Amino acid sequence: MAKRSSSSKEVLLGLLTIEPMSGYDLGQVIRDSIGHFWNESYGQIYPNLKKLAAEGFVGSKAERQKDKPDRRIYSIAPKGRKRLAEWLAIEPQPEIPRNELLLKLFFGAQASIETLVGFVERMAEREGAQLRNFERIHAELEKGRQYPGTPYWKMAARFGQIELDAHLRWTQESLAELNKIAGKRRSRSLTRSEERHGTK
Amino acid sequence: MAKRSSSSKEVLLGLLTIEPMSGYDLGQVIRDSIGHFWNESYGQIYPNLKKLAAEGFVGSKAERQKDKPDRRIYSIAPKGRKRLAEWLAIEPQPEIPRNELLLKLFFGAQASIETLVGFVERMAEREGAQLRNFERIHAELEKGRQYPGTPYWKMAARFGQIELDAHLRWTQESLAELNKIAGKRRSRSLTRSEERHGTK
DNA sequence: GGGTGCATGTAATGGGTTACATGATTCT
DNA sequence: AGAATCATGTAACCCATTACATGCACCC
What pTM value is reported for the model? Predict the structure, then answer.
């Protein structure tokens, strides 16, 4: 059997140790704070909160807001803290990534160089922007208010920084390599066209 | 709607451009050559090959072997090459990774430092071994027989190298950081126990 | 009145792993 | 005889995204 158990509920428990939140808040925090290494959709968050509440891992209470729609605030229960602690003690399984860009590059011989260059360039742009964002976040964690979690959040942000920096170095190297290949392909096709036209 | 379409069939087509192979072979090649950025289970490979054959994207023929069980060899058809080319031209979507180790580290304030240190140490060991493996693969691609795909395979291997190297630097930095935190936690609890015992 | 952000949910769909099932061949 | 590797396949299950559905409050 070995169910994937999947950590989706535990993320919610973990975030609720920071402070009580609504499902909507959790969605935002996941996207903005741990989005670079974890994400959850609302189609996952709301049902899981309901289940966690039904099983006594979290408490919930309705909150009336005057300027915004009402909402339901969840807070972690002792039973939830226990579950979180147990999960935290389990050795994390090395994840199996799926990198479509690398896959397409791997099959590069079947593709046009211009296309591949475009893919890598866009990756560099995207990840460059992300990197600058991480540097901002890391700086804020340094000077902002210190929570018990701050040192750990910084380590996670550093991971993003270091990894993105590595990716950017790879994009530079690969763009150079792709240019070399493009040069060769061009000269080869020139040769062939010269042959066809009886030149040289 | 926007079906995930998922690239699972295209990987098979892509690998079959290298040479005709059986489903079993494809499983091995996926694990050994592109396993660091893509993987497929046999429960995915066999049914997809069948579908690809039924739709005319690949051809298949039975092969009798005297020293091993019989097997079915698949080869890419012109229609399959077309499909592959179309897929290759589509901008790859940035993947959404799920890194359980980072997630647990992010909630580090709720865990024991010794546990976290163990996680990171094991990650360093695992990825260190993978890095050495990549260096070997990259060297073999340099000196081995040159296929049309070789330059691209090298780029993919370099990605693995560069990324793993970055990860290892992060593990070193993080282990140092965790040690600092452990020191603080110890002195804090010592202080508290001194207070309890009326020391100082 | 319409757009946007806040807020909560359900249902359909589907991708993918895991487990199960079977069998040949070779080596010890 | 049993273990290991080669080889192919199916079925169950489940995780997760996406789409759909609804409604409040606020501002232009």
Answer: 0.92
